[in-house]
Amino acid sequence: MTICERLFDELELRGLTAYGLAKVLGVHPTTISNWKQRNTDPPSKYIIAICGFIGCSIEYLLTGEDAGAPVVIKKEPVPGISENGREMLALYEKLSERDQLLLLGRLQEMASPMLGDSREKSQKDDARSVAG
């Protein structure tokens, strides 16, 4: 099995996308799809980042063997989480704690109009039950 074949097998096995990998590597998604279509191995400058994204050792990606390497726990897709959700989580985990908190704050801002309606209704219902 080639490096390219192992790479795409691992992406599929772990529920990761070529698009997510392209974002992490800072390349256009067609670059990743070209590797797959042409069955060409990625340039060596991307190997470390690829292994970090898919969660395997460099030795495994290059040779298919992991003798003496630390055990890598394979992440199984969580039922009920969409492909976009898994990709978001994988990217989120690569952020610093500060950036994670900033992102959470931004997500809360974006979701507040949707959550605000139900929260306001719940608060009004609570106020009515206390008054009534």
Automatic annotation (TrEMBL):
PROSITE patterns: HTH_CROC1
Family matches, as Pfam families: HTH_3
InterPro entries membership: Cro/C1-type_HTH (IPR001387), Lambda_DNA-bd_dom_sf (IPR010982)
Domain (HTH cro/C1-type): residue spans on this chain: 12-61
Gene Ontology MF term list: DNA binding
Region (Disordered): 113-132
SUPFAM superfamilies listed in its UniProt record: lambda repressor-like DNA-binding domains (SSF47413)
Basic and acidic residues compositional bias, start-end: 117-132
SMART domains: HTH_XRE
Coiled-coil annotated spans: none
Signal sequence extent: none
Name recorded for this polypeptide: HTH cro/C1-type domain-containing protein
Source species taxonomy: Bacteria, Bacillati, Bacillota, Clostridia, Eubacteriales
